[in-house]
Amino acid sequence: MTSATGAVLPSAAENIDQDAALDLLLGDFVAAITGLPRDYVRRRWQPRPPKQLPPDTDWCALGVVSQSHDVNAYQTINQDGSIDVGRHETFELLASFYGPNGAGFASRLRDGLTLGVNRGVLQANGMAMLDIGRIDRVPSLVNQQWLPRTDIRLRIRRHAVRTYPLQSVLSSEGTFQTETTTDTFNTENAAS
Where is the Phage neck terminator protein gp12-like domain (predicted)? Predict the structure, then answer.
């Protein structure tokens, strides 16, 4: 669908990680910094949740819990006539560490994010660390047993660009009429 149809325009194919793709990218990042095995860093909300790990196993559940954006977006007209709409987005990632060493893994993530080389992974994906929240210990009582859990929130910022398939007017004809004159016009824009 393009602007020639006269309908509302959806953006073209997304090139921005969202939802599961974003959670998986951030899961790779958290696993690399903390040293947890990748299959022990899990998406927080899955269609079919995996089996719960034993209480004495260290693991992490993570997910984006909120997303905000700048008030104003900008637009850039491309040579093919399409328009890019760009803005900065901020999202909050909640990482919950379970197991006997959960607070240690949360601290390891916090401290690992102070290293530029680690933040470089985010930058390579068009993101930047905005800030790191406090570490909260929030154990849960399940079946008469306390399950240790430690939460940390990260705010990450990124630049998002979406493309909309507009078509330029290549030529037009018409007439301007006033009370005293009638003028015709014809325009042709050469496609480059």
Answer: 23-176
Report H helices in 35-101.
Answer: none
CA distance 22 to 63: 9
The rounded mean pLDDT for the chain is: 85
Structure tokens at 190: 């050469």
Rounded CA separation 160/71 (Å)? 13
* Confidence band of 17 (pLDDT split at 50, 70, 90): low
Q: Are the beta carbons of 33 and 52 closer than 8 angstroms? A: no
pLDDT, tens only, 112-147: 999 999 998 889 888 999 999 999 999 888 888 888
Residue type, 176: F
Token readout for 84 is: 């890019």
CB 119 within 8 A of CB 128: yes
In this prediction the pTM is 0.75
Contact, 102 vs 110, CB < 8 A?
no
**66-74: average pLDDT:** 87
CB count, 10 Å around CB of 73?
14
Q: At what angle do helices 116-124 and 19-34 cross, to 10 degrees?
A: 160
